[in-house]
Specification:
The chain is of the alpha+beta class. It contains 2 helices and 12 strands.
């Protein structure tokens, strides 16, 4: 009987240890998602807000995400220019002051600009909470190399409790025309001929070798 009890105890301890390790693994993965990756970079601005920055993916990438947006919004693909997705995490430590205590219950409340928490404890804990957020996105171009510019997306939350753990942006290419190498149009020039410089006006054919 004693051996059976020891066996059962060892199983319970093993299950508890497994559960604790699993929870720690989830926390580690959550922390890892907030670190820089080759695609998403994080930085903190002067106000202490956490930013996430990522290159805008070109047309033809993120097909499943774009198709999912088309399906959910029923907006034709040709009308969609950009698709931006963000994963956020809200976390902080909140201190409850002066809870209301009665014989059978404890009630407490917390409110700030971004979070409202109302709780009570009787036989069990009951929490009601509301979280408010304001997430901003900035689309811009930065120079990359001598003749290239790269599209970038910068996202951040004004809520100091919230940070953006994942960010992706896709350019569907629906609003862009393929650049033409050859173009025809009116031209105005200044040339040298016959020993003197002269102006010329007419229709010209142009071939673009480099675009920047």
């Amino acid at each position: 009987m004693k051996n059976v009890a020891l066996f059962v105890s060892s199983i319970l301890i093993g299950l508890l240890f497994f559960r604790t390790c699993k929870q720690q693994a989830r926390i580690a993965l959550l922390e890892l998602s907030l670190t820089d990756t080759p695609i998403v970079k994080h930085y903190q601005d002067k106000a202490g807000l956490e930013h996430a920055v990522t290159p805008v993916m070109p047309a033809g990438t993120g097909v499943s995400t774009v198709n999912s947006i088309v399906e959910k919004t029923r907006i034709p693909l040709k009308q969609i220019q950009y698709v931006t997705t963000a994963a956020t995490i809200t976390r902080d430590t909140i201190y409850i002051k002066n809870p209301i205590k009665t014989v059978d219950t404890i009630r407490f409340d917390y409110d700030d600009k971004w979070v409202s928490i109302h709780g009570s404890w009787e036989d069990s804990l009951t929490l009601s909470y509301a979280m408010r957020d304001s997430i901003w996105f900035v689309h811009y171009r930065k120079k990359k190399g001598l003749f290239r510019k790269e599209e970038m997306m910068d996202g951040f939350s004004v809520n100091p409790h919230t940070s953006i753990s994942g960010l992706s942006a896709i350019n569907t290419g629906a609003h862009q025309r393929a650049p033409l190498r050859i173009s025809i149009g009116p031209s105005l020039g200044y040339y040298y001929a016959g020993g003197r410089f002269s102006w010329s006006i007419g229709v010209g054919v142009q071939y673009n070798i480099i675009r920047f």
